[in-house]
Inverse folding.
């Protein structure tokens, strides 16, 4: 995990996020991130595997996001006579993010993840989407980006984020790492949390006020 966050730190620092320049460049080469060791990568649904794509559980979704920048190929421009170019670089990363959004929705509908994990994971996808989106100096959307990064870091690590912060990159990296840890821990503690919910029950709330005798209904 530390290795992955260090990669994110280098991405943000190297391509001038705090300097209000493009957050990343499509020619950047990023080393492979360490995979999550727990759980299977995919869960095959019933039906013909050749026709139905495999479903990913929560662990596989996190593992795929950790490997977001792995095996990127240079973008190939369309040659004369060719209809389209080969996607590469961060255009490929953007495509992977979109696919992970589809995978997460499918996992939710299949019951492999719950709504809490789904919405927090989707927020993490949107966070990465902002990281790879170019932000040019004087962009009208600068304030929206600032608000989004501030909201993310505050909601996760309770740190405020601003473009001019000298430690802004470190704050984003720390919040991203913490969110990965929180989501992994959420998956690891499913059974324990269910046991705690049963044990706590209604003890966490005050008892309802006792009814007055005059309010009690008389038997008919």
């Amino acid at each position: 995990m530390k290795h992955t966050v260090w990669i994110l730190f280098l991405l943000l620092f190297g391509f001038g996020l705090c300097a209000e320049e493009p957050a990343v460049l499509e020619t950047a080469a990023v080393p492979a991130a360490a995979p999550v060791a727990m759980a299977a990568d995919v869960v095959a649904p019933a039906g013909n595997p050749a026709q139905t794509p495999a479903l990913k559980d929560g662990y596989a979704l996190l593992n795929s996001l950790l490997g977001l920048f792995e095996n990127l190929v240079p973008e190939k421009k369309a040659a004369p006579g060719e209809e389209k170019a080969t996607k590469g670089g961060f255009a490929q990363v953007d495509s992977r993010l979109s696919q992970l959004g589809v995978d997460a929705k499918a996992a939710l509908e299949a019951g492999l993840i719950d709504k809490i994990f789904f919405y927090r994971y989707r927020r993490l996808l949107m966070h990465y989407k902002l990281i790879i989106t170019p932000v040019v100096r004087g962009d009208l959307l600068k304030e929206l980006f600032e608000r989004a990064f501030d909201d993310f870091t505050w909601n996760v690590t309770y740190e405020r984020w601003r473009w001019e912060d000298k430690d802004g990159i470190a704050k984003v990296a720390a919040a991203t790492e913490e969110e990965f840890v929180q989501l992994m821990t959420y998956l690891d503690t499913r059974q324990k949390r269910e046991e705690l919910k049963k044990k706590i029950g209604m003890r966490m709330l005050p008892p309802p006020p006792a009814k007055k005798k005059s309010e009690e209904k008389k038997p008919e």
